[in-house]
Write a structure and sequence with these properties.
- The protein is built from 11 helices and 10 strands.
- It is of the alpha/beta class.
- The chain has a domain of about 230 residues: Aldolase class I (TIM Barrel, Alpha-Beta Barrel), CATH 3.20.20.70.
- α9 links the parallel β7 and β8.
- The N and C termini lie far apart (about 60 Å).
- The chain binds iron/sulfur cluster (SF4).
- Iron/sulfur cluster binds next to α2 and β3.
Length: about 325
């Protein structure tokens, strides 16, 4: 019996952890790095791609709605996670401005803080990037193409992070000219068995669907294409050759080798030892870079991530100066 879901589980718990629910199935939450910049700290590693973290709006149009239960996920998983959302989906126009208002509301506490740069605070009230990555699987939202187009029409860039199990929705983004500024496909395993063990899919053919999306990725000619490996020791940090074969199919501009971080709810599922060190990540990246003929162009120790670039990529050409400056802040 399929449980019909028209409500959000655990609203209080979400509010306490900083979420603000907008409409029937969307939410916004201030990112750690947004706060970090307002407090005078550095931007998140996505500044490689030009993100200004203090002006980033982290949101989801599919709160608690996902077809996976990844073992390393920092979010709490509800039993209703996969139950089809039978309620009316909100149109982007119904949620967009409310998301920005909630973001401003959440930032209001920084206004009176003398340690916060006034100019940065003023800029933060005008977000210029939307990270569609907060929670759930965004491609399950039927109006994703319209949401991305609305953001672009407002002069904002878009970051779409997806587990790529909905190739038909990704194709719709191409067909409807709604390619995100940055398209992130997350790769959780080098083969079917590891994929299933690491992301515990709630749908039968997630591996087949993922591979279909990898074949579709080169068609995103207006997006900076990134494959992100979230690496968990003892689970999916192995078989570099098999990862290389999958990445060659997708031909992304960048590959991120990112360590699983022992934070949030994942601490109840995994031991601290499952979190790779930066050296582990660099070793793995070196092997992978040789196999796919990409160059390691940067590392971010705080986020334990290495960036591998396709040197022939136009995006790398555009980003390389910025990446070099980020590598050597003294050059700034
Ligand atoms: S891109 Fe991601 S990590 Fe960076 S500020 Fe936005 S939500 Fe945070």
């Amino acid at each position: 019996m399929v449980t019909v879901r028209t409500y959000i589980d655990d609203v209080d718990r979400l509010r306490k952890s900083g979420y603000r629910i907008v409409g029937r199935h969307s939410a916004v939450k201030i990112c750690h790095w947004t706060k970090n910049v307002l407090r005078g700290g550095k931007h998140c590693y996505k500044s490689w791609y030009g993100v200004e973290s203090h002006r980033c709006l982290q949101m989801t149009p599919s709160l608690q709605y996902c077809n996976m239960m990844c073992i390393f996920c920092w979010r709490f998983h509800t039993i209703n996670r996969i139950a089809p959302y039978e309620g009316e989906w909100d149109y982007p126009e119904e949620i967009f401005d409310k998301l920005i208002l909630e973001q401003r509301q959440l930032l209001s506490g920084f206004k009176g803080n003398p340690a916060v740069d006034k100019k940065l605070f003023k800029e933060a009230l005008e977000p210029n990037n939307i990270a569609i990555s907060l929670d759930g699987e965004p491609t399950l939202y039927p109006y994703l193409a319209d949401l991305i187009k609305l953001a672009h029409n407002r002069g904002m860039t878009t970051f779409l992070v997806t587990n790529a199990t909905m190739p038909e929705r990704l194709k719709k983004l191409i067909d409807e000219d709604a390619q995100p500024t940055n398209l992130y496909i997350s790769l959780y395993g080098p083969d079917l068995e590891t994929h299933i063990r690491t992301c515990r899919p709630l749908i039968r053919n997630s591996w087949v669907r993922l591979n279909e999306s990898l074949r579709l990725m080169p068609s995103f000619d207006k997006s900076r294409k990134v494959i992100r490996l979230t690496l968990v020791k003892g689970y999916n940090m192995k078989d570099v050759e098999k990862y290389a074969e999958l990445i060659k199919i997708a031909r992304p501009d960048y590959v991120e080798c990112k360590a699983y971080m022992h934070v949030g709810e994942s601490q109840k599922r995994l031991p601290r030892e499952a979190m790779p060190s930066m050296n582990d990540i660099v070793d793995f990246s070196r092997k992978l870079s040789t196999l796919i003929n990409y160059k390691i162009v940067s590392n971010d120790v705080a986020s334990r991530v290495s960036l591998l670039a396709d040197e022939s990529s136009l995006y790398y050409l555009l980003d390389s100066d910025r990446i070099a400056r980020r590598n050597h802040p003294t050059l700034l």
